[in-house]
Amino acid sequence: MAPEPVTAHHIHGLVRQEIVAGAYTPGMILNLNRLTHEFGTSTTPVRDAMNRLVGERLVEHLPGGGFRVRALSPDRLAGLYEWHGQLLRLALASPLPESVREEVSVLARRLDEPGHVAPVASEAFGIVVSVSRNEELAQAFEAVALTLARARALEHLVIPGAVDELSQVIATIAAKDIAASHRIVGRYHRNRIRLSPRIHNMLRPTTAGIGQKRQ
Question: Which CATH code of 1.25.10, 1.20.120, 3.40.1000, 3.30.70 fits the domain covering 74-201?
């Protein structure tokens, strides 16, 4: 049997992926007994994994004990988009190195269908933030990006021009005009803030996840 810290790390990764993929939706109760049974382990590593997810703001404690996926209202979703945009603009405060601008620019070639918008955007923005070499900024950005992952995977369903929009964002970031980059990144996020209620309505379970009751 694997040591409990190793098991907890494994469970943390699997449950986090279920949340990001949308199998565990906001507000869903995570049943410790069911998780313990499905993972074939004791309660301790499952609880440790849940507490780690609480620290990542993906899961929250229930009054009186237990855990659930952190609730996500349209207002909170809008706030997450706003925070994501603010962090990205902070990372764009200085000109990007030529090699980084080329790396970001090349990603636009993968925008051949709407379903590719979310992963390309995630990679492009992640590259930009990594260049800042600001650990606190990078950690904050990673946390908000993770929380937004499922919503961002659905954006193209309510933004018909999502491919062209992201292509323009990438092209602008790949240029040297910082002010223009700030403007287009701001517009990109304002569009999503405005559409937050519609995106929120689409956040539904995609599969029966681990610890979730099967029908």
Answer: 1.20.120
